[in-house]
Amino acid sequence: MQQQKAETAGQEQTVAAIDLGSNSFHMIVARVHDGSLQIIDKMREMVRLGEGLTDDKHLTPEVAARAIACLERFGQRLGSLPSEHVMAVGTNTLRQVSSADAFLTAAQQALGHPIEIIAGREEARLIYLGVSHGLASSGEAKQLVIDIGGGSTELIVGEGFRTERRESLHMGCVSISRSHFADGLINSKRMKQAELACAVVIRPVRSFFRDAGWSRAVGSSGTIKAIRKVVTEEGWSQEGISARSLEKLRKRMIEAGSLDKLQLKGLSEERKPVFAGGVAVLSALFKHIGIEQMQVSNEALREGLIYDMIGRSRQEDARERTVRSLSKRYNVDQEQAQRVESTALALYHQVIRPWKMLDSRYSSMLSWAAQLHEVGLTVSHSQFQKHGSYLLENSDLSGFTRQEQRVLAAMVRGHRRKFPTSVFEALPQEVVLCTKQLCVLLRLAVLMHRSRSPVAKPQALLDVNGLSLTLEFPAGWLASHPLTRLELKQEASYLQAAGFSLTFS
């Protein structure tokens, strides 16, 4: 439920983005003024989080400690920077970790700021946003962007700053190096097997990206930048990475026979342990996607995070577009959704101070939940709140982090009938209470518009004291609306079971 306010027109502010990747942790600190971005500091540490992922999807204590120590150093650099100006995200490895909430609690404490886990396609969107801002414009030509991380590889086709196709593939420099070059030995057979394993992963989307009509390929991330540095310093390519230079690199590695004997200009000792896996991934992509030449971008996910923060501050929030798209796709009754949203926000504004919900992130989540609370009706009217919750938690929602999707799904799941306490208790501890409170406001708004009538309802006054709520309607209104009184009585019973008290008059 994190909302960032990067900058307002005419003001200069400092913002930071942290990328907890499977291979490296990166942090950039930037100064933003009128939408322009100036990087003022960068930090990077080769944490190799993916190395510590066990077969049962837990992090080894050694790697977890290494990650926490890195985040403590990042946190010291961030100093007193407010959390609304910091965005930290976890990617592939943290998407896989069992009981990730426990590690995240320690990680957030070390960093001093919230950390969100993002889905693969959301990672792809943010990567493209960073890359497209960093490269010189080429009109409206389509471009293919590829980012090879430690545990996943993102492929995106887009024009300008908008994506057209996005995919996250479960292969990366760490995972392929672990599965095919763990002992450091490199030979033709192993390289072919590694490339074949990558080809199997690429195959379902091969035609999707090969035939997308892009005119240039752009690579980002440490792996691709490391390969570019080697092929240019070795003299195999004058600029970027060509198919021919990549083949020469591949041949030189096989001739070396092992990582210990591998001597390449521009290749650091730090990068060497995962370099063979990265080369295998890129070689497979060149071959199966049909790439002959690749430019290399210095911008990637963390720059995309910064630009996303800037966009949110300028009312260009990708989440708003996603909510509108979902409403249209699932034929949500827009008029009913607007009535519920208006009433929910009116109730919210009456509890801002006692419930300490001054940050606009709360009103945004309540608004989106109101707009989407009936999204499950497209599946079935029976228990549609469960269908809607499933769709919101498991769909690819551009702009939303995984935690935000879980919060949104919980609110939609709990907007009617019995209050599903266990669903809320499964959320990260720090958002359980506020999500329950927002859901109560949504429930009351839905109840007041149960008749679906366009006739305006009277403005109800809401007073709260902790978890006790008192609703007051205009004199005589409830007496003339016995059905609403009955429904409020039933609602009071539902809320009591969830720890809330509701009285009305």
Automatic annotation (TrEMBL):
Which keywords label this protein? Answer: Cell membrane, Hydrolase, Membrane
Species this chain originates from: endosymbiont of Tevnia jerichonana (vent Tica)
A GO term from the CC aspect: plasma membrane
For this entry, list what GO says about its biological process: polyphosphate catabolic process
Q: Where is the Ppx/GppA phosphatase N-terminal domain?
A: 28-311
Q: Which NCBIfam families match?
A: exo_poly_only
Subcellular localization(s) per the UniProt record? Cell membrane
Question: What is the name of the protein in this document?
Answer: Exopolyphosphatase
Q: Which cofactor does it need?
A: Mg(2+)
Q: What class of enzyme is it?
A: hydrolase
